[in-house]
Structure formats: C-alpha cells, structure tokens
Amino acid sequence: MAPVLQRSVLLVDDNVGLREGLATVLQDEGIETHEAERGEEAIRLVREVRFDLLVLDLNLPDMTGVRVYSSVSVEVPSNRCIFMTAEASEALIEEALRLDPLRLLRKPFEVQLFRDLVRRGIAN
C-alpha cells in the first residue's frame, strides 16, 4: 500500500474559538493544521512551512487576509486559498475575489461545506 501524504492547512482567524473548532474538524479528517491569529504570524508560517491550503479571514487585527495572501503568493505561488468573513466591505470582498480563491465563505457557514471545500482544495 502506498503511503498517504500528510496534507497541511493554515487557518488564520483572530476568533480563537472558530479557529480551534475548524482545526479540530480538519484534524479529525487526518489533515495537519497550523493556526495563526494575525497576518504577520501567518506570513512567517508560510515562509517556514509548506501548506497545501490557506484559510484566511478577511479581517485580521493587523492586516487583511487579502494582504496576507498577496504577500505570500508572490513567494509561494502554488498556495491555494479560501477566504472567510463575517463582515467585510464590498470593496474588500471584490479585491479578495480578484485573487481567484477556491471560495469566499460568509460566516457562519456549514461545517460540512467547509470540510468539502478543504478536501477539494488539498486534492492533487
């Protein structure tokens, strides 16, 4: 039997309860997760660890998820992204969509939808 490749996802959200809950969902699926609360922390992690998928909140304490993704996609262009937001300006949402994410999820969202999107995002 061929070895199963460990997939890795970075979850970036300043809401610790949501972030930890999503991490648990993914870990139950056998997906390695890393977490960040702030944009600068996320950028540092992307430079240190290879991720198959980034899940970014649009509104972070120190910058937008768009800025995080724009910063790291130049250095690591293979990264795929799911954006999520509870509330964001239409301009920020439009800016995020121009980056061609797998999806922009509006909070609250169904866990099954999130799980399915992540599975699709990390598939070969």
Describe this entry's structure for a reader:
This protein is of the alpha/beta class and about 120 residues long. The chain has a single domain, classed as Response regulator (Rossmann fold). It contains 5 helices and 5 strands; from the N terminus they run E-H-E-H-E-H-E-H-E-H. The chain has helices at about 15-30, 40-50, 65-75, 90-100, 110-120, and strands at about 10, 30-35, 55, 80-85, 105. It has a 5-stranded parallel β-sheet with strand order 2-1-3-4-5, with helices on both faces. The longest helix has 13 residues, at about 15-30.
Keywords:
124 residues; Rossmann fold; five-stranded parallel β-sheet
Task: Summarize the SSE layout with pairings.
Elements: E1 8-12, H1 16-28, E2 32-36, H2 39-48, E3 53-57, H3 65-75, E4 80-85, H4 90-98, E5 103-106, H5 111-122
Parallel strand pairs: 1-2, 1-3, 3-4, 4-5
User: In terms of structural class, how would the helical and strand content be classed?
Assistant: alpha/beta
Strand content: 15-25%
Biggest β-sheet: strands ordered side by side in the sheet: 2-1-3-4-5
What is the ordering of alpha helices and beta strands?
A: EHEHEHEHEH
Per DSSP E runs of 2 or more residues, the count of β-strands stands at 5
Mean pLDDT: 92
**Biggest sheet layout:** 5 strands, parallel
Percentage of residues in helical conformation:
40-55%
CATH level 4 superfamily: Response regulator
CATH class descriptor: Alpha Beta
Shape: globular
Return the CATH architecture. 3-Layer(aba) Sandwich
Uncertain segments are none
